Amino acid sequence: MQPIGILMKEHRIIERMLVRVEEAYNIAKLTGNISTDFLMTEIDFFQTFADKNHHAKEEDILFRALGQKRMQIEHRRIMSTLLEDHKITRLIVWALGAAREKYLRGSEGAMVELLATMERLLAIYPKHIETEDKHFFYPSMEYFNEMEKEEMLEQFSEYNKSIDYEKYVQIAEHFEHPIAIHSMSGR
Ligand SMILES: [Fe+2]
Ligand SMILES: [Fe+2]
């Protein structure tokens, strides 16, 4: 497998989690309620699986290695937009945590803030993933020889040991509607 194969597989996992987020978003919009447990799981997923693991593999391993190559200007430009996106997603997830706290306290406007923050998350990730999958990952592999790609794969698997990887795969795959339905019964 190519190193980008692992990253692209993770994109599919993140996309499945985004479907869960969208379901919860739609129900919250309809009912005015959302499960704070779901929000906590969502925040943890995006902080741990998407950022601490997936973004970290991109930034600390792939992008860093690319930084040592003579990259085409266009690829360098895309890489800096990807880094910027990662920063923005961190802020969005942080804002989601803050809005969840407000919602728990029953603050006025908390639901509006929650919905707006979820919308931002739902908007940024698909575009980001598409840029990586369709415009960046394949050309990025052209800069490395087979040995370098092997090393990268090993580094990726080392990173994956630093979190409970399977737990997050399960969350994305099996977090079904009941969570959203629970939200109808309140917090
Ligand atoms: Fe990324
Ligand atoms: Fe990615």
Q: How do the strands and helices of this protein lay out in sequence?
A:
Blueprint (H helix, E strand, L loop, with lengths): L2 H29 L4 H32 L5 H33 L4 H32 L4 H15 L4 H10 L2 H8 L3
Helix pairs in contact: 1-2, 1-4, 1-6, 1-7, 2-3, 2-5, 3-4
This protein binds fe (ii) ion (FE2) (2 copies).
Can you describe this structure?
This protein is mainly α. It has a single domain, classed as Four Helix Bundle (Hemerythrin (Met), subunit A) (Up-down Bundle), CATH 1.20.120.520. Helices cover 85% and strands 0% of the residues. The chain is built from 7 helices and no strands. The chain has helices at 3-31, 36-67, 73-105, 110-141, 146-160, 165-174, 177-184. The radius of gyration is 18 Å and the shape is elongated. The site of one fe (ii) ion (FE2) has 5 residues, from helix 1 and helix 2.
Largest beta-sheet characterization: none
Which fold name is given in CATH as the topology? Four Helix Bundle (Hemerythrin (Met), subunit A)
Straight-line distance between termini: 44 Å
Ligands bound here? fe (ii) ion
- For CATH, the homologous superfamily is named as nmb1532 protein domain like
- Overall, the morphology is elongated
What's the count of strands? 0
Radius of gyration: 18 Å
The string of secondary-structure elements, in order, is HHHHHHH
Q: What percentage of the residues does DSSP assign to strands (E)?
A: under 5%
Please, how many domains? 1
> Mean of the pLDDT scores?
93
What would you say the CATH architecture is?
Up-down Bundle
Tally of helical runs? 7
What's the helical proportion of residues? over 70%
